[in-house]
Amino acid sequence: MQQVTLNNCDKPMPAIGMGTVLSSRPGADPSETMKSALLEAIKAGYRHFDTAFIYQSEKPLGEAIVEALHLGLIKSRDELFITTKLWCTFAQRDQIVGACKLSLRELQLEYVDMYLIHHPLRVNETIQKLPVPKEIIHALDIKGVWEGMEECKNLGLTKGIGVSNFSCKKIEELLSVAKIPPAVNQVALRWIYEQGVIVVVKSFNKERMKENLQIFDWSLSQQDLEKISELPQHKGFTMASLFGPHDFVLQLDAEI
């Protein structure tokens, strides 16, 4: 699989990753469903997995990695690129290292390859119901939180650090205070790949898993690229409603 070199990570990132937001068929155990799907993904050739504390998929991913090693599907954990994310509850300077270690325990790993700030905001308690009450959402202390992310990297808990769902303005603010610049900002497959963007896909269907990897032995013509680029683009944040009818999008500078 094609790989991309990142600016603060010693390890290249595979150009296609597998998303792991927890879901399952009615009546099925979601953790077992996820674990089985991840094992199938490893068999299909996926080596990049994207998880997060809030996805509740760190534990089944860790179990899948242990089983993949036992079955000989991979020879070493080093064959995998694992990304996880700092949830908003822990987005405070003194909680970040502990949050990263909590994720590592769930994953049964000594380190992750990429640790991201999940959203550019902080909530002061665990989200128990949706929409989230406005009074528990706060602006992010970008300087303090990024210092915590840098500490995670310096301690060897993660190979690289980055952000997710950050606007251009938020990234500019981060760059003005960062000692280690962010490696990534997460944002039709082949067109995305040809723009130099790493893709995270999700399917529990074996055939679709394979199809999503079959983009490296062909290319789009210049005419095709131009036609796709001309399609109207609509920017938005589809999860904004989860945070209630208030200024969450404005916290992101309304630029996503």
UniProtKB/TrEMBL annotation:
GO CC list: cytosol
MF annotations from Gene Ontology: aldose reductase (NADPH) activity
Source superkingdom: Eukaryota
Gene3D superfamilies: NADP-dependent oxidoreductase domain
Record's signal peptide: none
SUPFAM superfamilies: NAD(P)-linked oxidoreductase
InterPro entries referenced in this protein's UniProt entry, alphabetically: AKR, Aldo/ket_reductase_CS, NAD(P)_OxRdtase_dom_sf, NADP_OxRdtase_dom
Lowers pKa of active site Tyr, annotated site positions: K85
Domain spans labelled NADP-dependent oxidoreductase: 16-187
Binding site for substrate: H118
PROSITE patterns: ALDOKETO_REDUCTASE_1 (PS00798), ALDOKETO_REDUCTASE_2 (PS00062), ALDOKETO_REDUCTASE_3 (PS00063)
Record: active site: Y55 (proton donor)
PANTHER family: ALDO/KETO REDUCTASE (PTHR11732)
This protein's name: Galacturonic acid reductase
Organism of origin: Solanum tuberosum
Lineage: Eukaryota, Viridiplantae, Streptophyta, Embryophyta, Tracheophyta
